[in-house]
Specification:
The structure is a single chain. This protein has 190 residues and is α+β, with helices and mostly antiparallel strands. The chain has 2 domains: 34 residues, no CATH class; 134 residues, tt1808, chain A (Alpha-Beta Complex). It is built from 5 helices and 14 strands. The strands form 3 sheets. It has a 6-stranded mixed sheet, with helices on one face.
Length: 190
Amino acid sequence: MNPASSYISTERYLEIERAAEFRSEYIDGQMVTGTGGTVHHAWIVSNTLFCISGQLRGSSCAASNSDLRLFCAQHRVFTYPDIVVTCGPARLLDARRDTITDATMIAEVLSPSTKFYDRGEKFLFYRSLPSFSEYLLLSQDKIFAEHYRRQLDGAWLLREFDSPTAEIGLTSIGCRLLLGSLYERVEFET
């Protein structure tokens, strides 16, 4: 990600972003342009969204892809998670209904250019959300998942999965994911 301009207000960012052809994120006064995804990234996101959405039917939770903007108010950050799940009524930034301000679960597919940001600073931003309980990071280079779950004392527990037959329990949203199904059609180099 590369800074696209000097300091701008959140209001100016939203004005620019809502009229823009391409999306940019916002980190405390700076617009940051994203990079394009790979076919592996697209398939993993699509497979994961499909698995989660199917299990959420009839519940109070709903999943969305990266078309939905998320605002982390404490850090003044606007971002587009690969997958975001909200439960209950959507908490919206304003009447435009294009930006949410809370999430229960978020999934990101790691890429070489974003993996450190996704694991570090971005996770810090997400942890400031009041309802945020689970974070799923999926590698696109191999079958591998990092699953973080908030504990009752506020600590975060990490579990790693690398077997296609492993089952990941997303307890905050009542879903179970078979790791191998998230990688359908993805062919890794040998």
